[in-house]
Design a protein that fits this description.
alpha+beta, 6 helices, 5 strands, flat, transmembrane, transmembrane helix, membrane
């Protein structure tokens, strides 16, 4: 009878261990599969959103009609195909469409301004400014910025030859406005600031070039002073 009870107890313990093993197995499996399922869902959702409007919830009820990824692709292709445009890209963020175009390094401010206006006309063929970049019926619409420059960030943008023009059309403006941001609005003040920078550089160079007393020289000077005091 006692042996029978011991055998039954052993069977119960084995059953409990088996259940724990199964439970641990399923928990581990869930922990492994959960990130994979979440990642798969994110990728699937992103794929399904292709061609959907690019804007946040804070513009709910506004930005209608909306600019889609397909519209952006068409804008990029048309602007990149313009004569004189060496590099181009665009992005749409916070209800502002920004288009960037690099032109020849020897281009002047007038050249950049003319190219910005040409790009504006090209974008207008895809996105009608009176529809996409103009407020109507109390609804917020997109802003447009066209950036045209003759040097990228890897080149010397501090030179006088650097040209950067921004053509802006906000949804509250009736017409775009072009500004050459590479030229100082107040030339005299800009020249004074540049001169101040050069003066500071010269002073720093002079200070670093002047000989500094070494530790040995300081020690010798201290010994001499001590001897004279005696």
């Amino acid at each position: 009878m006692k042996q029978t009870n011991n055998k039954a107890n052993r069977n119960i313990k084995k059953s409990h261990r088996s259940r724990r093993t199964v439970a641990v197995f399923w928990i581990c499996l869930i922990l492994v599969l959960a990130p994979i399922v979440v990642l798969g869902w994110v990728l699937f959702s992103s794929a399904m959103d292709t061609g959907s409007p690019v804007f946040g919830n804070r513009y709910e009820g506004d930005l209608d009609p909306s600019i889609t990824k397909s519209d952006l692709k068409t804008v990029d292709e048309k602007v990149a195909g313009l004569d004189g445009v060496q590099a181009e890209f665009s992005n749409l963020a916070s209800a502002t469409l920004r288009v960037y175009a690099q032109i020849s390094q020897d281009a002047t401010a007038d050249d950049a301004t003319a190219k910005a206006q040409e790009i504006y006309s090209t974008i207008s063929e895809v996105l009608d400014p009176s529809v996409y970049f103009t407020q109507a019926d109390g609804k917020k619409m997109y802003d447009l910025e066209i950036h045209v420059y003759n040097m990228d960030s890897s080149q010397d943008r501090t030179s006088d030859a650097f040209v950067y023009v921004i053509d802006t059309k906000t949804s509250s403006m009736t017409a775009p406005e072009c500004q050459t941001v590479s030229e100082a609005r107040y030339p005299e003040l800009a020249e004074q600031l540049r001169q101040d920078v050069e003066n500071r550089k010269a002073a720093a160079a002079a200070a670093s070039a002047s000989p500094q007393p070494t530790a040995a020289a300081s020690a010798d000077a201290g010994t001499t002073d001590s001897t004279e005091g005696q």
